[in-house]
Amino acid sequence: MASWFYASEGKQQGPFPEGQFRDLVAQGVVRPDTLVWSEGMAGWQKVAEIPGLVGGGGAPPMIPAGGPPMMGSGGYADGGGGVGGAGSLAVDFGILEFTWRTLVLLIGSCFVIPVPWLFVWYTKWIVSCVKVPGRPNLSFTGNAMAIVPWFFGFIVLAIAIGFIGSQLLSNLLFVVQLVLYWLLVRWMVANLASNGQPLGLSFTGSIWAYVGWNLLFAISIITIVGWAWVAAAQMRWFCRSIEGTRREIVFKGSGLDILWRGIVAAILCSLIIPIPWVYRWIMNWFASETVLAPRGSQAAM
């Protein structure tokens, strides 16, 4: 069944399943002069111009074939009702809000027990600050209770191994930690939503690949600068491993880009006060280098 987008105050809303979209039309939320788009349409059209849509008749709307439209500047949607083109992500948050939220997270984490709830609270906020072309109102729908067993199970295991004092078990604890991080990534990706509707994304990277990348990164630190190139390659692998969208997620940043920014960030963060501005600068760069592009375009980059 087709998914629909509509324009409201210059922004794309959607995607909406056809049944829900027809309800919006019937309720007057989507008016006859509202611009709408669905996959297969040549461009944005007014509702009144699409046969079979106004009046909620039983026959499906007549959708002309053609290329994807553009909404505003580079706007498009991926996923179920994808609009063509390519565009990069962006991050936007206030310095004061970042500062107080981060302090609450750090101070609260010292008490250990609130960590799962603080993590979800902070993640919901930071995800809402990410702007994705064609995916308005990005949100995170995960519940803290989903990760409570992982978190406290790991705490109990760490305490037990600490009492035993075995080096072999300590190494095993490190592997368990990586497995939990991998599960956390899968859980976070699966709980991303837009306009309150799940995006249906999944992280398909294997646990062995995840562990391998992290070990390679740890080893690369010995080379002083090699870690930056490993980080860039790991980001590209991470993006390729996200599925459930009709667009490729492509990371374009290079190792050199990461290296000099990392050095600048380390110097500035040593001064403490610039940390919020540095964090926003780094996040914005990573977001701007993460592009949603037509399938097959990655090979050409």
From TrEMBL:
It holds the Pfam family GYF_2. Residues 4-53 form the GYF domain. The keyword Ribosomal protein does not apply. The chain crosses the membrane at residues 103-122, 142-165, 172-190, 210-237, 258-279. Keywords: Membrane, Transmembrane, Transmembrane helix. It comes from the Bacteria. The keyword Zinc-finger does not apply. InterPro entries: GYF_2. This is DUF4339 domain-containing protein. It comes from Bradyrhizobium symbiodeficiens.
